[in-house]
Design goal:
By secondary structure, the chain is of the alpha/beta class. It has 19 helices and 16 strands. The strands form four sheets. The chain has a five-stranded parallel beta sheet, with helices on both faces. Residues 151-457 form the FAD/NAD(P)-binding domain.
């Protein structure tokens, strides 16, 4: 009788890939987790219970077939595991690195709920596709047949690139427009290398370009080319700009020098990793070295900022968040990594104002959690008389992002937006009220996860191909 290869969660404990010591990893921007070895990946995959209702899959935005590729990995059928993983996810090696698995697949693992600790889904996902690249299983994009239709994609972030991949595989002609000099969006310039090394992103960009995707970089819509021109040049257009406008701070001294946006700080640091010269870093404006750093916010962007500041040699790094640890929106795993690296978290603390210009300190008011708000989360309330001053040489605002005013920037008043400024579009297809124009990712959802942008890009691409095919059928009759 064959030995059961799965359901070993009772006898095999959860084991993450080895994490580099904080004292060592603080000195560079390399990824902090090592790769699983073949035997360890198989062992950890074998812990899957192969449950009849896989909550891990249900809670993955892409509905990745996680139990099956865990089974394939556990039984040594790794190339099949890769094929199953790639079938639903355009960039599994990226999601394996940056998805908040503790809130999605792993957080809903059945064996986790039964007290046996979750399967290390993200680490296995990363291992599968890294191995596929190494073994040559990742094939070039070669459409079975070329199509005459073309699609213009505005934005080379994860949503736009996922759509480009899907469209090219269907033979559609694709041009991607982006304001930056490298494709990848926040994957390239927003997420630090210690979470996502840049050669991983550049490798996918190269695959897309080799597969026939045309990139028009350093191209800003409304300045270098009009939205109307893009519509005229293509049979359909996908808006995948993301949201990059930083929410602002209020209070006395909020405009002081030394108070900077998270996206500017992270972009600067990531540019340095490419060997670029950045004037704002050379001048010291966006360099944390030997400075007292205060980051305001509790999301993943805030975690990226505090951990970047540590690596730049900051004298001290503190993070202010107005709620407690249990209510922070960022990944608990990332928070733990930051604490290991020396970051101090000031929970239930919010900025009231700022001293000095350039900034020398943050006036902090202590908070407590009151009644739940409309979202169900407890609202922070000020504790009167508990204010104090936090010394700071550089304050980084990581308060979240809002959409830019695209109808005004692009001189396209017909582009309908919500009261939040996001583009109105159907969630299933991305269709807007303008014929042939689609919108996906954060510009529709608001600031969200990379995995949701990938899903939107794939869904919109499929809807566009279906539309093209329907039009071709009608024309042929």
């Amino acid at each position: 009788m064959a030995k059961q290869p799965m359901l070993k969660f009772v006898t095999v404990n959860r084991d993450m890939p080895e994490k580099r010591d904080a004292e060592m990893r603080n000195k560079d921007f390399n990824e902090i987790y090592s790769e699983f070895a073949d035997t360890k990946a198989a062992e950890q995959s074998s812990r899957c219970s192969q449950c009849g209702v896989p909550y891990c899959q249900a809670h993955c935005p892409l509905h990745n077939n996680i139990p099956d590729w865990l089974n394939m990995t556990a039984t040594g059928r790794l190339e099949e595991a890769y094929a199953i993983s790639q079938a639903t996810n355009t960039f599994p090696e990226i999601c394996g690195r940056i998805c908040p698995q503790d809130r999605l697949c792993e957080g809903n693992c059945v064996i986790e709920q039964s007290g046996h600790e979750t399967v290390t889904i993200g680490a296995v996902e990363k291992y599968i596709t890294d191995t596929a690249w190494e073994k040559g299983w990742v094939k070039p994009i070669i459409p079975a047949q070329e199509r005459a239709e073309s699609v213009g994609i505005i934005g080379a972030g994860p949503g736009g690139l996922a759509a480009a991949d899907r469209l090219r595989r269907a033979g559609v002609q694709v041009t991607v427009y982006d304001r930056h000099d490298r494709a990848g969006g926040l994957l390239t310039y927003g997420i630090p290398g210690f979470k996502l090394e840049k050669d991983i992103v550049m490798r996918r960009n190269a695959q897309l370009e080799a597969g026939g995707v045309t990139f028009r970089l350093n191209c800003e819509i409304g300045k270098d080319i009009t939205f109307a021109d893009i519509r005229e040049a293509h049979d359909a257009v996908i808006i995948a700009t993301g949201v990059y406008k930083t929410r602002d701070l209020q209070g006395p001294g909020a405009g002081a020098k030394g108070i900077v946006n998270a996206i500017d700080y992270l972009t600067c640091s990531n540019r340095l990793s490419f060997g670029d010269s950045v004037a704002e870093f050379d001048s010291g404006e966006l360099d944390a070295k030997d400075k007292k750093i205060v980051v305001i916010g509790g999301g993943d962007t805030a975690m990226d900022c505090v951990r970047t500041a540590v690596r730049q040699g900051a004298e001290s790094v503190k993070c202010l968040y107005r709620r407690d640890r249990a209510n922070m929106p960022g990944s608990q795993r990332e928070t733990q990594n930051a604490e290991e690296e020396g970051v101090v978290f000031e929970w239930l603390a919010a900025p009231k104002g700022f001293a000095g210009d350039p900034v020398t300190g943050v006036m902090v008011q202590r908070m407590r959690l009151g009644q739940p708000d409309a979202s169900g989360r407890q609202s922070p309330e000020v504790i009167e008389g508990a204010d104090y001053m936090e010394d700071a040489d550089l304050v980084i605002k990581a308060l979240g992002f809002e959409p830019e005013d695209l109808p005004a920037l692009w001189n396209e008043p017909e582009l309908a937006v919500t009261r939040w400024g996001t583009v109105k579009a159907q969630f299933t297809t991305g269709e807007t009220d303008i014929d042939g124009v689609y919108a996906i990712g954060d510009i529709v959802r608001g600031a969200s996860l990379v995995v949701w942008a990938i899903k939107d890009g794939r869904d919109s691409a499929d809807a566009i191909v279906e539309r093209f095919s329907a039009s071709a059928s009608v024309a042929a009759e």
